[in-house]
Amino acid sequence: MEGGAYGAGKAGGAFDPHTLVRQPHTILRVVSWVFSIVVFGSIVNEGYLNTPSEGEEFCIYNRNPNACSYGVTVGVLAFLTCLLYLALDVYFPQISSVKDRKKAVLSDIGVSAFWAFLWFVGFCYLANQWQVSKPKDNPLNEGTDAARAAIAFSFFSIFTWSLSAALAVRRFKDLTFQEEYSTLFPTPAQP
Predict the structure, then answer these.
(1) Considering the entire predicted model, what is its pTM?
(2) Which residue of 31, 110, 143, 167 pairs with 25 in a disulfide if CB–CB is 3.0 to 4.6 A?
(3) What separation, in Å, do the N-terminal and C-terminal C-alpha atoms of the chain show?
């Protein structure tokens, strides 16, 4: 077994983009990033309507501005969170301290689980508001595809963030095992 905890023996090595792109948690982050763009992009782009008789725009989800605001806010913040953790994935092999690696993985577990919960709430909220929307508010069915896309990708995001949390738990277990192994079986000093 190599020395170092969970790749810490390679800390300080050259950045390898090929290895980074092939890691499952990186792929899930990119997919979550794309899903968040779809959600907030579709709501911002076609989530607000106005009629000739009314001068003000209203949200396509049951005229509830909170529904549109929630979808946009969660989408934008998830987008930024994905970028932050993608940067952490790039930097992670350079971290040599086991404690710092544990902190990074624990934050990944907590943040991913939190975002899975927020996407679940967002899916339920948007789906409910879409269900109770009145056809008379949108007689030409403008923006309905975008509204459905935001709901669908909110649903898909629940699974991508949940899988990210599960993969982070697995990484944490590997990290803990490596730490315990190196404590129980220290490598002998080289003469």
Answers:
(1) 0.83
(2) 167
(3) 20
State the pLDDT at residue 184: 60
The CA–CA distances, whole Å, from 69 to 131, 138, 180 equal 18, 19, 47
In degrees and rounded to multiples of 5, residue 167 shows phi and psi of: -65, -35
The Cα 122–Cα 126 span in angstroms is 6
Looking at residues 113-133, what average pLDDT do you find?
95
Distance CA 8, CA 159 (A): 30
Cα–Cα dist 109/32, whole Å: 15
Looking at the chain, how many residues does it have? Answer: 191
Which of 162, 150, 21, 161 is CA-nearest to residue 78? 161
Separation CA 166–CA 71 (nearest Å): 24
Is residue 99 classed as helix, strand or coil in its secondary structure? Answer: helix
